[in-house]
Amino acid sequence: MNDSREQYTLANGRTSINALPKVSLHDHLDGGLRPATILELADSIGFEVPASDAASLGEWFEDSADSGSLVDYLATFDITVGVMQTTEGLTRVAREFVQDLAADGVVYGEVRWAPEQHVAKGLTLDQTVEAVQQGIEQGIDDARGEGKTLRVGQLVTAMRHADRGLEIAELAVRHRERGVVGFDIAGAELGFPAGNQRAAFDYLAQNFLPVTVHAGEADGLDSIRGALFDGRALRLGHGVRLAEDIRIESSDDENTFVSIGGLAQWVKDREIALELSPSSNLQTGAIAAWGDDLQDHPFDLLYQLGFTVTVNTDNRLMSNTSLSRELSLLSDAFGYDLEDFEVFQLNAANASFLPLDERQDLADTIIAGFQSA
């Protein structure tokens, strides 16, 4: 089972990717559990899981998630969400989540999760947010004890197929001074446009809480358009299918011409960050229109055309990955080097939901870290 402590290096074999300062923008709490923790939490509450040891359970998650379908991929969360229904479970998972970020060299992370999915055993929405924040703070203290410094903020998420968007938006605003930095909608994308949650997005805009929206993963350009204009999204969760608005044509003289459609041009010109997650995008079939190998991912196309691309894990457990591993895979696929990695991290820092001055401080931290690499 891959974890954040596995070491990755650039092609020269000398530069440690793990040691580089990194920013994680798209990372689901219920997709980042340790298999051993799932087993222990499941045992404590009598919850049935599909394997009896950590290694086998980790393999089950990766195999089950590698389905080519977002719906099948999301089904694996029945297990992780099932063991995250108590204060103790939520706090422990959040604490270990932050520990694993720190071990992977992350200096700023935003963790997204849906409180409405964690109230089955009687917790209130506010209690779930408080439990996760307690775990985050414990994890930060643990990292500090190991000489590492990082910050982590919560992205409170509403499930787009449910009818609780405004309630969850109000929850996010209530906790904005106690760990919450932004809002998201997630879940089944196809058939559940962002416009269905318009009341929530209006409320968030009125209260100046920033928004990212899952779009362009299991649905195409209309979903992205809705995220931008109904959701007022400042970032696109995945957004990989924005490449459908880009045409590449070859002429008779073997020249290549690229045509960018109006929607893609808007995203590019406004520097709206794409929260791309290479391994996850393969697993869910998000890049099926381009191929079934990482080299087919439109990541490089978007990067070369000047879009604000960022690298993310999405769900570390389901993809058996870490941020360092995702960067390593991209380097293998497209030949990226230290300079490219720095661009990706600065893109993420600038797109984070921190205040402007703090975003600049984060960028300075990244620049200093890469200079010393």
UniProtKB/TrEMBL annotation:
Species lineage: Bacteria, Bacillati, Actinomycetota, Actinomycetes, Micrococcales
Domain Adenosine deaminase residue range list: 21-367
Keyword Hydrolase attributed: yes
Enzyme class: hydrolase
Origin superkingdom: Bacteria
Keyword terms, alphabetized: Hydrolase, Metal-binding, Nucleotide metabolism, Zinc
Name of this protein: adenosine deaminase
Keyword Amino-acid biosynthesis attached: no
NCBIfam families on file: PRK09358.1-2 (NF006847)
